[in-house]
Amino acid sequence: MIARSIKAFSIQEFKKPYRMLFPFLWKHRRAYAGLFFFMFVDVALTLAYAWFMGTITDAAVEGSFDKLGRLVPAGVLLISLSIASGYWNNMLDFRATANVKKDLKEHLLQHVLLLPAANIGNLRSGAVMTHFMDDIHGIGGMIGSSLIRLVKLPLVFIAVFVYMLQIHWFLSVLSLAVIPAALASGALFGVLLRRNNRVIQALCENLNSLLNETFLGTFVVRSFSLEKKLYRTYTAENERLFELETKDTRLRGWFRAGGEAAGAAAFLLSLCVGAYFVSNRVISIGSLLSFVNLTNHLIYPLMGIAGLWAGLQSSLTSAERLLRVLEQPLDTRELPDYECPPPGAKSIAFKDVSFGYDGSTRVIDRFSLDVPAGKTVAIVGASGAGKTTLFQLLLGFYKPETGDILVDGLSAGALTPSRLRGYMAHVPQDSFLFSGTVRDNLLLARPGVTEAAMIDAARSANIHDFIVSLPNGYDTEIGERGMKLSGGQKQRLAIARAILKDAPILLLDEATSALDGETEHQVQEALQRLMQDRTTLVIAHRLSTVRNADFIVVLDQGRIAESGTHEELLRKRGTYRELTRRQTNGIRSNYR
Ligand SMILES: Nc1ncnc2c1ncn2[C@@H]1O[C@H](COP(=O)(O)OP(=O)(O)OP(=O)(O)O)[C@@H](O)[C@H]1O
């Protein structure tokens, strides 16, 4: 087992995590330099204390009061220096550790925000929360004073051993007898702790995901009476976590107890043999006192290195988990920011575009479409035909496998995400609202817009009267994801947000599906006005929307099945005509 543990150790394992951490450590190099300086101060103080103890004891045994009197100020100085050194060590350790963790959190958030959409789909929200809450905290064993101790402990060991050799070489060699046991236990416990820690973190990830989904889907949970089932799952996992954490504490306890036993053994051995040497006048009582005091400092670095190794192993698990996210390649390093939409309507062109989410099944298949500036094109088709995917491609969330998408004659792939998305105002199927006020949610579409423009947009979306009827009007809190609003209110707010953005291209994905007949009519009017000077792509299933479009595309399995104006398509007696017939007869269709 020990051999396996030692074999498991490989410098290679640390290369990648430290390569990731290096820029953060370098940024706070002053704190690390300070820690490095106080490391030497600490080593010097350890030796000085041993010297002081031996010298003052010998002076007492000799009855030399003059010498004792001279030693007192030295003792006061040593105590003062060690208080100052302790304070600065703590402060610098905090700076060296907390700053790196803070920067790492920001870097992680930036990386997650920049991850391509395809990679985001593979991330579980619980895992992301665990990275932020536990893993960043978990790398503590690789940074700050833990990192300095990698140098400090061997230094203390060598300095103390050399000092002890000066007192008596045989005693010094004798006190090394416990080294093999100390090193072996460190290697063994390190691997056991790391193994346990891996399971703990995977379990935390599951628990965080479970909690996250429970709160996000709270009404689904209640409507299906899943409370008991979820509670049972949570308590079972939580119980297992408790057992693993108990095991972790037990392992650490054994490790600490082993260290103390090794220290006590070395102390007893040197005390017994040392007492024999004192009785034979080989060494003085003071020298023996210095020696036994130093044996602790000899064993502590050994156990410390073993403990450090165990801590490093635990931290390595956290670093590996962070690396799994941070190593995912990014298309860009710059966070997209609001870019003022360019004025005037813009054209859109899909040129022989093919795309599939998994690289094998084609969701969009050699799709070509020209949308001249200022025109409205409606896209209809069965559920899963690829309508929303076309929007995702247009917004640059995914890249076409073949073909190109042109916006205003420019290849979408060549535009920065900020510029590309600046062209478009998008109202998706599920309008996401942020917790905060109505005003916060509206203004994020166009920062710095005037109050009058904001109210105009709300009026156009037929939501202004409702907003002013709220207790605090535009400053009313709408709850997490807009929970305090109805589906139709949320949708109208999302439409107002899109109107406010005033972008040259409108992407409406079933934008009016949650509205009642009367409200829909009013919003349709507003949208109609808005569409006049804009290029609009609309995924629609209501005839009113489709009929007014300049052009209609019927999508089937990612290909254009039919296209033309409303009248042309009706004359074709194909899929579109069947769709309109079903809607007119009030039959619920799976066409949208
Ligand atoms: N992120 C994704 N990863 C993998 N497959 C996906 C993803 N999003 C959509 N799909 C698949 O791509 C196909 C097209 O989906 P899309 O959402 O574009 O259809 P749609 O026409 O908008 O359907 P609906 O009208 O029901 O919204 C579907 O088969 C769907 O399962």
UniProtKB/TrEMBL annotation:
InterPro entries, per database record: AAA+_ATPase, ABC1_TM_dom, ABC1_TM_sf, ABC_transporter-like_ATP-bd, ABC_transporter-like_CS, P-loop_NTPase, Type_1_exporter
Highest taxon, organism lineage: Bacteria
Xref: SUPFAM superfamilies: ABC transporter transmembrane region, P-loop containing nucleoside triphosphate hydrolases
Molecular-function annotations in GO: ABC-type oligopeptide transporter activity; ATP binding; ATP hydrolysis activity
Protein name: ABC transporter ATP-binding protein
Gene Ontology CC annotation, any one: plasma membrane
SMART domains linked: AAA
Keyword Thylakoid set for record: no
Residue spans crossing the bilayer: 31-56, 68-88, 139-163, 169-193, 257-278
Residues in ABC transporter domain copies: 348-582
Membrane-topology descriptor: Multi-pass membrane protein
ABC transmembrane type-1 domain residues: 33-314
Subcellular location: Cell membrane
Pfam family, one: ABC_tran
UniProt keywords, alphabetically: ATP-binding, Membrane, Nucleotide-binding, Transmembrane, Transmembrane helix, Transport
Coiled coil: none
